[in-house]
Design a protein that fits this description.
Strand order of the largest sheet: 7-8-9-5-10-11
Order of helices and strands: EEEEEHEHEHHHEHEHEEHH
Structural class: alpha/beta
Strand content: 25-35%
Number of helices: 9
Oligomer: single chain
Radius of gyration: 19 Å
Shape: globular
CATH superfamily: P-loop containing nucleotide triphosphate hydrolases
CATH architecture: 3-Layer(aba) Sandwich
Length: about 260
């Protein structure tokens, strides 16, 4: 924080800043967002979005195509510098600095096709301190993925699986997965869900976007529904079922 920056702290959870520059506070949630707005030209991708992501949960981010899901994930990953509103990740308002605490697997990921899995592991180890190489190797063996095979040789589904494994093995507090189950068969999807349940911890949160609502509903502790850039609801899955008397997938279908 600059020496002449004026910051007023009202409580461990509330911070008033006169610019968006670099405040870190104690925060009980993994992510706190208030009044987020993102526009691409005249198109408003996110419109006054406010929500929080608790620590230690698997959270579903759902909505139709174009609802703002990928934009929200890219913002949380520190990839959208121009936005309005306030956001904290692990208590940090500087999203660039928070990036080291965030792992992001985009819907269209970038990867070096000519590298094999082992070479990609070494690349990730150099980029991300504390990268868990042993976890990648263990999961690759569990799913029958060859460490010596080039990523370009994988089928669509096996490539998606390899990238999923590579990203969740980062030592990150917040893991953002944008459509990670796309192109993957139902048996492998179930095994991937098992890995997520095994990996989540009191200090690790997953935010996962998906269109496979009915299948993924049992996995999610919490649901965030976006529609045309607006927040429809941000609610615990059990609370949603109790409040409506319906399955989460049914509530989402009706709201969409």
């Amino acid at each position: 924080m600059k020496a002449n920056e004026m910051v007023t702290v009202q409580s461990p959870e509330t911070v008033t800043v006169q610019s968006r520059e670099i405040v870190t506070v104690q925060s009980p949630e993994m992510v706190y967002a208030n009044g987020l707005q993102v526009s691409y030209g005249r198109h408003a991708a996110l419109q006054d979005i406010s929500f929080s992501l608790p620590r230690g949960e698997i959270i579903g981010l759902v909505g139709e195509n174009g609802s703002g899901k990928s934009t929200l994930m890219r913002l949380l990953a520190g990839m959208i510098p121009s936005y309005r509103g306030k956001v904290r990740i692990c208590g940090m308002t500087d999203l660039w600095k928070a990036k080291k605490r965030v792992s992001f697997l985009p819907a269209v990921p970038f990867f070096e096709k000519e590298k094999n899995v082992l070479q990609t592991i070494e690349c990730f180890s150099g980029l991300f301190p504390g990268y868990r190489k042993e976890m990648v190797q263990t999961l690759c063996a569990r799913f029958g993925l060859s460490l010596s095979e080039k990523l370009s040789a994988f089928s669509t589904g096996r490539l998606a699986l390899a990238l999923f494994i590579l990203h969740i093995s980062r030592e990150a507090d917040l893991c953002l997965l944008d459509e990670p189950f796309r192109g993957i068969d139902i048996k492998t999807r179930q095994a991937m869900k098992d890995v997520l349940i095994e990996t989540v911890s009191p200090e690790k949160t997953f935010l996962i976007s998906t269109h496979e609502i009915l299948e993924m509903e049992p996995l999610f502790d919490r649901i965030i529904l976006l529609k045309e850039g607006h927040l429809v609801f941000d609610e615990a899955a059990d609370s949603l079922r109790e409040r409506t008397g319906k399955a989460v997938a049914e509530v989402i279908r009706e709201a969409m």
